[in-house]
């Protein structure tokens, strides 16, 4: 099943409990490295993965850097980590200013593809920095929750 999903398209979304990313990397890193873009939507959540696990991820530089280590060679962009999944449908294509989606990545081609896809589904992508900034794209951080693109830029600027 996972092999079929990875083989299906040029873009793969990783939306799993964060502890599963390691096994996905062990089993599928080579196939994922051939994709145009791997969107990492998974977050290490203390109530699900445990405080010690989340502390370990944070000590290694956060989820963006850990995902890159677990999926070597993959063209990773962290996106949609800061917004609750239950609110996405209601926020897409809303009237007025679009909801901003903070993204983090180190690969300019993958970032460009992610930005295009995010715009197509009704949001405004805001690059906040490289994968090291991925540690701020989780609930409970200043970038967590619903923000305008301008608010995201301001918050991200204060985090650098």
Can you tell me about this structure?
- The chain is an alpha/beta fold and 160 residues long.
- The protein has one domain (2-82, 89-159): Rossmann fold (3-Layer(aba) Sandwich).
- The protein contains eight helices and five strands, in the order αβαβαααβαβαβα.
- It has helices at residues 2-8, 20-33, 46-49, 51-59, 63-70, 88-91, 108-120, 149-159; strands at residues 11-14, 37-40, 76-78, 100-105, 124-129.
- Strands 1-2-3-4-5 form a five-stranded mixed beta sheet, sandwiched between helices.
- It is globular and about 45 Å long.
- The N and C termini lie far apart (40 Å).
- The model has no long low-confidence stretch (mean pLDDT 93).
Brief rundown of the structure:
This protein has 160 residues and is of the alpha/beta class. Helix content is 44%, strand content 14%.
Second CATH tier, the architecture = 3-Layer(aba) Sandwich
Question: C-alpha Rg, in Å?
Answer: 15 Å
The total tally of domains equals 1
Count of discrete alpha- or pi-helical segments spanning 4 or more residues: 8
Q: Which strand-content bin applies to the residues?
A: 5-15%
Low-confidence region ranges: none
The helix/strand order is HEHEHHHEHEHEH
- Structural category is alpha/beta
How does the SSE layout of this entry go?
Blueprint: H1 2-8, E1 11-14, H2 20-33, E2 37-40, H3 46-49, H4 51-59, H5 63-70, E3 76-78, H6 88-91, E4 100-105, H7 108-120, E5 124-129, H8 149-159
Parallel strand pairs: 1-2, 2-3, 4-5
Antiparallel strand pairs: 3-4
């Amino acid at each position: 099943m996972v092999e079929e999903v990875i083989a299906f398209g040029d873009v793969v979304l990783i939306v799993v409990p964060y502890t599963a990313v390691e096994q996905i990397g062990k089993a599928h890193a080579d196939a994922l490295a051939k994709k145009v873009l791997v969107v990492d939507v998974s977050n290490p959540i203390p109530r699900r993965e445990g405080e010690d696990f989340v502390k370990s991820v944070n000590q290694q530089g956060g989820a963006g850097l850990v995902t890159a280590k677990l999926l070597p060679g993959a063209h990773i962009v962290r996106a949609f980590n800061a917004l609750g999944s239950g609110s996405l449908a209601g926020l897409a294509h809303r009237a007025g200013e679009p909801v901003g989606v903070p993204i983090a990545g180190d690969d300019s081609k993958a970032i460009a593809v992610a930005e295009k896809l995010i715009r197509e589904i009704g949001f405004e992508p805001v690059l906040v920095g490289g994968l090291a900034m991925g540690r701020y794209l989780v609930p409970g951080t200043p970038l967590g929750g619903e923000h305008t693109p301008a608010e995201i830029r301001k918050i991200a600027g204060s985090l650098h």
